[in-house]
Q: What sequence folds into this?
């Protein structure tokens, strides 16, 4: 150190500054090169990671859709073996097909009475057919004998309902079709603005049908196609056509005989791509096949595309067959094929824009490096900076101590508020239970007293009536005490929480079975549309939640109405909903439920009574799963109660 100090004194301060500046320049050049290389590799890695994330999300949804199509194909094969349902609407439809003119299109959109028409649900469906006189116009179409024709028509009606259910429950589906070689077409959803003649004019020329025949697809595998869509009316001839409509289709055969195809048009929103801003201005993210562009985020560069249309070497040359990154015509091209569809993601970024953004980033980094260089030249600033840093550390320590104190006080206040709330809840429920238990036990005491005093002289019918009243009071008291016991265990953490992976459908089926007698007594049908997903939850708690929600739905539904259980995925959680079409609630009643205000339980549509404790138990059990309870209701329309639980993958 002494020799270094003597050497620095010998060369003088001026030369020392020059040497320091020269060393700083050399180090700056090395730093610029290293930073530029690191930035380029980092941007490429960011692009690949973003594309992998987008591809995995798309592949997951496409795999679910492909699975739906395969299950629907197997369902149709089994349905063709069952005897057809004989309904007046179906008979009239078949007679209309035989009698219609060659240019008419018979249509069936009702197969039951007005209050029980499965084709007129939340997603309406319809069945269309080519008349017998028009069948010969279409090559490859033929109609079987009347027995098999009736079986196909009845199967198509049931299949239309399945299509409607899949369109409603599976995200990403736009419209479902069943196109048969007998001239039958099932469509869901069927909209009032749809034109039957226009649909039937081109339905048998769609690629999803033509490419599914035995000649074009001898292996019978599911197909992904892109159906061209016509340009908007009034568009100029040199304008880009509308993007093609992606479709997934699966052929249906019966002992080697091609019967038709089940297909779904995908919702264009499914293929919408995020903005490709990872590589700076001018970057474009594309999705398509070798010769068709399905979706684009940004405007494709003119040197690779002409007015949005791929050039002969444009899309095919740009989109590689494997995941790779390469340069092409001054652009950095990154491709990522999808696993479950013959499409690929393509990221196109101008090399000049990427380089400029890295230069600006490096220049910013150089500013920091220059500051360090100046600090080396101006050595005397080090003492001042050390003093400042010491003061800042002291101030930071003081701020942290103050923040820790404030945090502790806030936690104490929160704990106090929670204890106060629990104490109020305890008082409220003890008051509620004491009031509601008095009624059933007064009935029990009065009825049993009457039976003890006059039972030998009463008519058998009167004795039976008294016994029914005693039983109903006992059931009411038992239900109240059971809910109270469950709620108190949850509040005192006495109920063990044991989550496990389980199929949701099994728990829903058990809950429907438990509430079956109650629903049958009012003529209410419970529809299970929860799907085949798996959840990570405590089975006993989820069963208790569903039983209470179904009991409320039955209680507030009018006789002969329906209750539906559905589910949908929300990220890593599953939303389960119980919906009825009963009397509903007004905003004031909903607000009371959200604020947990004490109130008497409302009687049901047939005078059923309760305590209001069931919803409190449901709210606490949902909270144990980290979920959210939501209510949506309108007077006279009905109520939908939903809650969320963790979503899980099916065990292998």
A:
């Amino acid at each position: 150190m002494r020799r270094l100090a003597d050497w620095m004194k010998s060369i003088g301060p001026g030369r020392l500054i020059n040497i320091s500046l020269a060393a700083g320049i050399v180090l700056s050049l090395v730093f610029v090169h290293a930073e530029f290389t690191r930035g380029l590799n980092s941007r490429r890695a960011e692009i690949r990671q973003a594309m992998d994330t987008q591809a995995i999300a798309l592949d997951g949804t496409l795999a679910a859709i492909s699975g739906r199509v395969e299950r629907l194909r197997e369902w149709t094969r089994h349905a063709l073996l069952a005897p057809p349902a004989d309904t007046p609407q179906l008979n009239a439809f078949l007679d209309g097909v035989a009698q219609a003119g060659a240019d008419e299109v018979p249509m069936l959109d009702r197969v039951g009475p007005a209050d029980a028409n499965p084709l007129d649900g939340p997603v309406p469906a319809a069945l269309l057919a080519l008349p017998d006189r028009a069948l010969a116009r279409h090559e490859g179409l033929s109609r079987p004998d009347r027995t098999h024709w009736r079986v196909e028509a009845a199967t198509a009606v049931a299949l239309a309902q399945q299509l409607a259910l899949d369109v409603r429950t599976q995200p990403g589906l736009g419209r479902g079709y069943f196109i048969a070689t007998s001239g039958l077409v099932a469509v869901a959803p069927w909209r009032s603005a749809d034109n039957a003649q226009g649909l039937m004019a081109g339905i048998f020329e769609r690629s999803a049908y033509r490419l599914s025949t035995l000649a074009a697809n001898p292996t019978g595998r599911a197909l992904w196609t892109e159906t061209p869509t016509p340009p908007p009316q009034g568009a100029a001839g040199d304008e880009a056509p509308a993007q093609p409509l992606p479709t997934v289709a699966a052929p249906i055969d019966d002992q080697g005989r091609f019967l038709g195809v089940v297909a779904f048009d995908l919702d264009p929103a499914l293929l919408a791509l995020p903005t490709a801003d990872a590589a700076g201005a001018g970057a474009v993210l594309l999705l398509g096949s070798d010769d068709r562009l399905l979706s684009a985020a940004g405007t494709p560069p003119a040197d690779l595309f002409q007015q949005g249309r791929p050039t002969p070497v444009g899309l095919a040359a740009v989109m590689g067959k494997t995941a790779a990154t390469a340069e092409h015509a001054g652009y950095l091209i990154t491709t990522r094929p999808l696993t479950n569809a013959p499409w690929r993601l393509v990221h196109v970024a101008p090399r000049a824009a990427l380089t400029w953004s890295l230069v600006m980033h490096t220049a910013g980094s150089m500013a920091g490096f220059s500051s360090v260089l100046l600090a080396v030249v101006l050595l005397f600033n080090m003492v001042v900076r050390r003093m400042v840093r010491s003061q800042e550390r002291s101030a930071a320590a003081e701020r942290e101590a103050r923040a820790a104190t404030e945090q502790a006080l806030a936690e104490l206040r929160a704990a106090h508020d929670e204890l106060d709330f629990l104490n109020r809840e305890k008082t409220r429920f003890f008051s509620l239970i004491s009031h509601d238990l008095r009624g059933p036990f007064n009935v029990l005491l009065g009825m049993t007293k009457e039976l003890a005093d006059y039972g030998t002289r009463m008519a058998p019918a009167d004795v039976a009536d008294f016994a029914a009243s005693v039983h109903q009071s006992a059931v009411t008291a038992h239900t109240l005490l059971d809910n109270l016991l469950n709620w108190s265990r949850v509040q005192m953490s006495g109920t063990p929480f044991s989550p496990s992976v389980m199929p949701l459908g099994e728990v829903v089926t058990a809950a429907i079975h438990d509430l079956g007698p109650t629903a049958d007594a009012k003529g209410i049908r419970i529809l299970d549309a929860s799907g085949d997903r798996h959840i990570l939850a405590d089975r006993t708690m989820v069963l208790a939640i569903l039983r209470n929600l179904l009991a409320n739905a039955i209680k507030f539904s009018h006789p002969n109405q329906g209750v539906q259980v559905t589910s949908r995925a929300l990220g890593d959680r599953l939303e389960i909903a119980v919906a009825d079409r009963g009397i509903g609630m007004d905003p004031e009643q909903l607000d009371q439920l959200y604020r947990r205000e004490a109130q008497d339980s409302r009687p049901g549509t047939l005078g059923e009574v309760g305590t209001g404790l069931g919803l409190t138990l449901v709210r606490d059990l949902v909270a144990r799963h980290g979920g959210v309870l939501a209510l949506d209701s309108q007077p006279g329309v009905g109520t939908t109660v939903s809650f969320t639980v963790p979503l899980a993958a099916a065990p292998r």
